[in-house]
Write a structure and sequence with these properties.
By secondary structure, this protein is mainly α. The chain is built from 8 helices and no strands. The longest helix has 36 residues, at 71-106.
Length: 181
């Protein structure tokens, strides 16, 4: 049987564009990435998403691997950082949703129409991905201009415009699917 290549050899080859070496690195270490994510986050679905995100980002992150530590040590750090980022995003989203709930509690009591409208708006917002939801909340909910929302989100104004277009399109598709069913 042939000799198995070391992580160092695979990393060097992958950095030089060897797709097979990169694939072998992923195959060899995917279980570790997934286990770290699952243990850190506690959700198998989120762990799978995080592991997939790491695998996709690893192509560019690998360039930053200098070899000062073992590849597995470096990769573990990448995985832990991805988990920390995920938890920060989740906490941020929870604070945003709690803030929205607090604001909603300050408004006068709903009549039947308001309650219905709020429930489908909340449902539709929940169906959007984080970036679209945050953009809609700032532009439509907080009545910020695209320029103001762009500044808050740290993106270009054109990105806010694009996100609003995408959100409208997705919400319209949802409404069409519900009406057509």
């Amino acid at each position: 049987m042939g000799c198995e290549r070391s992580d160092s050899a695979l990393v060097a080859a992958a950095k030089d564009g060897d797709r097979a070496a990169f694939a072998q690195l992923l195959e060899r270490h995917y279980g570790r990435i997934h286990r770290i994510a699952w243990r850190s986050i506690g959700s198998p679905e989120d762990a799978e998403d995080i592991a997939q995100d790491i695998c996709c980002a690893l192509v560019t992150k690998l360039v930053g691997f200098r070899g000062d530590a073992k590849f597995t040590t470096w990769l573990t750090g990448v995985a832990l950082n991805a988990c920390r980022d995920h938890l920060r995003r989740r906490q941020s989203q929870n604070r945003l949703m709690q803030g929205a709930a607090n604001l909603a509690a300050l408004t006068p009591g709903p009549d039947g129409r308001d309650l219905y409208r709020r429930s489908w708006i909340a449902s539709d917002l929940a169906a959007l991905d984080d970036t679209l939801r945050e953009t809609v909340i700032l532009v439509a909910g907080e009545e910020m201009s695209h320029a103001e929302a762009a500044e808050v989100l740290g993106v270009a104004e054109s990105t806010v415009s694009w996100r609003m277009h995408q959100a409208r399109r997705k919400l319209k598709e949802e409404r069409s699917d519900e009406d057509g069913s």
